[in-house]
Protein: EEF1A lysine methyltransferase 2-like
Organism: Diaphorina citri
Amino acid sequence: MYIKQVIIHGFKSYKEQTVVEPFDKRHNVVVGRNGSGKSNFFFAIQFVLSDESTSLRHSDSRQALLHEGTGPRVVNAYVEIVFDNTDHRVPEKAGFTNLTGVDYSEEAIQLAQLIKEKENLVNIQLKVQDLLADDIPANVYNIAVDKGTYDAISLNPNDPASKRKTYIRNVHTMIRPDGLFILTSCNWTEAELLDHLRQYFQHIESISAPQFSFGGKVGNTVTTLILKKISS
């Protein structure tokens, strides 16, 4: 298995979407002038493949990852790495059907569609859906997985508390009776999340994560909860 494509957009010195390919399965050399983005290219790969992202608990740390320069301000960024797994070093996904990827951004869904077609992921559906809207379908999914949406909503400058409540209520609506909600957060502690969610979800289990100590107290760099829908 080896990296065959890297896509960077809005990250550090990469303002516009940059697609780097192809890669050789054995050796690759990156060359360029000083300031051309070589170091940021490797940092982008490190950011995805290491635990770098889980340590960015504060908004100012995440802000430092965005491109800063002339022109319109960059407000979001992403780094995507596509692997060649033709040697089957990583076992193929099995046992999952009727998967749906949801995002409010049409551009994000278009990008995901390209990846889906390239990887021949026939069991995944993609749709544009604003999870803060009123037209949320009811009792559709057995499991909902959140790997950053709740944190992003929490950073909204316009009444984030109200938007968090709307999001939780809508996720509860989408999940079938006795369905599961798996939530990962880098901003909230387990106690805080459980307080936010207790009206709609029952805590089943917490997934362990790297810990840090400060001032004599121990905490997690990231919190992941498995929750069960409470029937209305």
In short: The helical segments are 38-49, 59-63, 106-119, 149-154, 160-174, 190-197.
